[in-house]
Request: fold
Amino acid sequence: MSLTLDITICTYGHEGLMRTAAMILPPMPGVRYIVSWQMPGETATLPLPPELSRADIIVSQIDSRGLSANRNNAISLASADIIYIADDDISIYHEGLRAMLDTFEARPQLDIAALRYDGTDAKRYPDTTFDLRRPPRGYYLSSIELCFRRRVFDSGLRFSTLLGIGAPVLGAGEEANIVHRALCRGFVGRFLPITIARHDGLSTGNHDFNPRAIMAEGASHSYLNRYLAPAKMLVAAYRHKKSLSATLRYYRFLLKGYVYGLRHFRRNGDERP
Reply:
């Protein structure tokens, strides 16, 4: 039996909704779009773009802030076998969706697939699959690469609202956090050399001059490398910035994030109560 797919798209404001309308593919059997539309403190007065007025598209308006809260709202509406975490500024490849679904069908034990995207800001990827518990050096996750089997979210996992764009302190890291927590719970995750989308523009993974994203990197060390973190963060700072003053500035933000992480995250990456 073919697997069903929900593509969750998080967007913000009227401009984001128009971007979402432009990225929707023609209808595909077994595929739905779930659009979580944040309009905090506002009431939508404009009609939905006609491209979004289809039976296979759900648009949910929410009065909240933060990308993680937006994603969690979309996930709460998903019911398909596979859930793809998309954004409103990508172009999705039909062939990539099909290859991803075929892989999940062929690997019933697979819970999380980390894929590839291309475009002007495309990352470098390995050519072969690997276990996400043992990623190669330099590899990092982006949300638009991630597909989950629904049982991962049925377990109660959600994106941490302490992480991501719009979070109180830490402006990134929500995708790596949720994957780490899923792996800690025994779910199986692999990188697959399948290109699922195109993205043009700066990714939040490129955070050389983004203190909130650098602090999020430091916070991740609080549960990934708790005791070796100071040394690992110093090496990371030096790799990003070659001058002494820039290295020390980068390291300072890493340390601030690390201390914040110790206060707010458990060893497995879950939020502290």
